Amino acid sequence: MKITPSARVLSMLGEIDFDEWQCVAELVDNSFDNFLDILRSEMEWPADDFTVVVTLPSSPKGILEVRDTGQGMSYDRLARSVRAGWSGNDMHDKLGLFGMGFNISTARLGRRTRVLTTRVGDTEWIGVEIDLDQIKDDFEAKDITEPKNDPSQHGTRIIVDRLQPARAEWLRRNGASLRNILGSVYSWILAEHPFDLYVGGTRVKPVRHCRWDDDRYVLYNGKERIPAYIPIDEKLQDGIACRDCGEWQIGSGEICSVCGSGNLTVRERRIHGWLGVQRYLDKTEYGIDFLRNGRKILRWDKQLFTWNNPDGREGNEEPEYPVELAHQGGRLIGEVHLDHVPVTYQKDAFEYGDRSWLTAVELLRGVAPLQPKRAQGLKYPENESPLALLFKGFRRNDAGLRCLVPGDGQKPVHAATRDWGRKFQAGDLEFQTDEHWWQAVLRHEEIKKQGKEAKTAASVPAQPDEQAVLDALGLPINIPASGSAQPETETVSTVPAPPVVVKERTETRGERLARYESVASPHTYLTRSFGHPELGYVKVRTLLLKPGERLLDDNGLHAPVLLDQRSGNELTALVDAEHAAFRRFGADYADLLLVELAAVLKVRARSDWSPSQLVAAIRAESLQDSALDGTTVGAEARDLLAEIRERVAETLNRSGDCTTAYGHLSKEEETATEEAMIAAGRVGLVSRLGLDSGFVHHVPALALVRLVEAMPASFMDGAVFRGLYARVSSPSGKALSLARVTGCLADVATLGTFAGEATAPQLRRARLSIALLRDELAGEE
Fold it and tell me: Is the dihedral of CA 234, 237, 238, 239 positive or negative?
């Protein structure tokens, strides 16, 4: 079989940079192309006969085989398929866009490739053997055949042997990784079509996106409804494309302007798919997937999160998401089909300079910055693109309904939600819908509400029990209230009847615990595995008792935390949030739970560790995300300050007090503000200092404290902070209400500026101030 134009080219193709998974994918592409041809032709074909099997090498001298149950090929079709150069594939309908793909992938993997194919009714397998060690000029590859026992057999086999040692070793050791990559690359195809792909004897499952359901949304500023899922379907004007070289044509000529072919056709151009929000944050797995003909070309792509200033120099791009708490990662995701946009020969990028790609970018993210203040400062109209809408509603990661983030009543539970995401991918039925995440959001709101109610109740003096006072004084019961008339009755002397003693049934321990559980709510953050490699592990389900319910141990004593042993290594932990240890002394639920767990694990492991060693070890192993470090707490502080700056700026714009507010800055603060604006590329706004509220985003953090102190009537009473001021009559009352805000704001501003130098007590204080200050924000009730 002739494989010209130059047989020597084949040996050189193995030097082209293709990863191992890309080599396998090139071969799978060809099989899926054949399956798609079958579906398009609407020929009769068994629904369970679309299978590709990839056999991995079991040793360094093993083979790689890709086998499918497609139609098979004729001799002429086979010759075209293995020839180095264009395969004649339609450049717009096929996954295998370039005929070179087969040659590159096989040459990259090994020195010899055999291709065998057969159709229904053929009497044998026909094929070709390409041996790179025998390649010389004008070499004709050897035709081969194999007997065929069953005439109904059909399909194609590609066998690569004499594998490159490094590639063989990777394939031998990384079957699971290869399945995961291919499950992501072909996720849409595997989910939408009846295709089966097996790698190393195991079925490849589509790696689906763990996104919030279609009907979830948040309320921006308490009124604008922003969905967590936005469908995309934009039909563009049809275009004329060359079926031979793939180029889209400008104008309406009869021959291709690039290759001179007359094989032109009118094709649809359409951008479709969706943008949405992942149910958890991740440091790498977020971004937009871009597909061509069902195969992912870009996975977790983040380039649309960066704004390219058309007036700036190259390299001056400004990332816009994630910004607040960027170290935690992101959650904006999407899956967008761009079948009409050309890709590189490696199928790992689109042609980014092509006008069709630029059109798609403009449709999805707009031309203006995603950040509203940045867009406004640069005189752009509001960005109303789908991505800008998602950014507006979901750029923050605060726990609760406001940002659609699960929490534990105090803060987000990012580690737990990522673990739920892994269970989603593993197929755990409980985590397939977003209900588990949704209930965690609602529980956060309920716990937070209960905490506020408890604080309110604690601040109100308890009312006396009137009947108890009367009983203690020895006065008769049911004394009428003064001024109320009571009917006169005749006093009758009677002999009291002997008391009837009824022996009350004692509640069993199991009944008591069941009663507690029936009125308790799950604590998401503390429901997890606890332990240490030296002690073993237990699974703990933590429940918060209903307010008013008193947690008693087996001796009838009031307990803050009570453990109940369940089957195996499972424990239920009951927590009484109204116990004095929490209400009066400020202990953390986790602290006392760890004390109880340390006692259990000490006995189980027969450990010689002291109680403090046990608690410290379990906390370090099981609650790593609660560690106090300047980076994390500092980022939390700056995140909250960014929101406060935005609210202060909006308030000043509404009230028209921008000039007054700027006048409260000291000369040093004015200089620092100018320098910050210049460093942020806002040089053009320096001339407008004091004329609008743009300076607020760049003033030193501690200057915000003085602004609130200097203009409390502008920012209290629900404007920025919910604390009362104008409606408080006494000067001392005004000062107290204001101090509740500015005290916490000073802590947060200091920590946000000098987090790297903070001690552990200062970090604890700052984290508490962050929580208290967030409660003071208007609209957070």
Answer: negative
Question: CA-CA distance, 666 to 156, in Å (whole number)?
Answer: 78
To the nearest whole percent, how much of the chain has pLDDT over 70? 84
Contact (Cβ atoms closer than 8 angstroms) between residue 336 and residue 271: yes
List strands edge to edge, sheet with 51-55.
142-147, 124-131, 110-118, 155-163, 64-68, 51-55, 196-199, 202-203
Residues 153-182: what's their mean pLDDT?
95
Give the residue among 155, 178, 405 at the shortest CA–CA distance from 281.
Answer: 405
CA distance 652 to 719: 10
Write the CB contacts of 732 (distance below 8 Å, at least 6 apart in sequence): none
* pLDDT greater at residue 378 or residue 663: 663
Q: How far apart are CA 477 and CA 465, in angstroms?
A: 13
Token pair belonging to 496:
């009291």
Distance CA 144, CA 721 (A): 81
User: Is pLDDT above 50 for 102?
Assistant: yes
Q: Look up residue 350 and give its DSSP letter.
A: B
* Contacts with 486 (C-beta within 8 Å, 6 or more apart), sequence order: 480
CB distance 521 to 539 below 8 Å? no
Report the DSSP pairing between strands 202-203 and 196-199.
Answer: antiparallel
| DSSP states along 442-457 | HHHHHHHHHHHHHHHH
Beta-carbon count within 10 A of 578 CB: 21
Q: Which of 149, 128, 37, 24 is nearest to 74 (CA)?
A: 128
- Where residue 556 falls (left for φ over 0; alpha for ψ -120 to 50; beta otherwise) is left
CA dist 479 and 474 (Å) reads 12
**Burial of 477: CB neighbours in 10 Å, binned 0-12, 13-18, 19+:** exposed
Per-residue pLDDT at 533 exceeds 80: yes
The number of residues making up the chain comes to 781
- Cβ within 8 Å of residue 136, ≥6 positions away: 7, 8
What the block records as the tokens of 584 is 């009066």
More confident residue, 454 or 511: 511
Q: Which two tokens stand for residue 40?
A: 């398009």
Pairwise CA distance, residues 444 & 657, whole Å: 37
| Cis peptide bond N-terminal to 322, omega within 30 | yes
pLDDT at 399 over 70: yes
pLDDT for 632-652, tens place per residue?
Answer: 788 888 888 888 988 898 889
Residue 116 region, left (φ>0) first, then alpha (ψ -120 to 50), else beta? beta
Which one, of 105, 342, 370, lies nearest residue 241 by Cα? 342
Residues 6+ away with beta carbon under 8 Å from 547: 450, 453, 454, 577, 578
pTM greater than 0.70: no
Of residues 6 and 582, more confidently modeled: 582
pLDDT (tens digit per residue) in 298-353: 999 999 999 887 766 554 567 889 876 667 789 999 999 999 898 887 888 999 98
SS3 at position 241: strand
Take residue 262 and report the two structure tokens written for it: 């007359």
Amino acid at 497: A
Determine if residue 548 is left, alpha or beta; phi over 0 gives left, psi from -120 to 50 gives alpha, anything else beta: left
pLDDT in tens, 116-135: 999 999 999 999 998 888 86
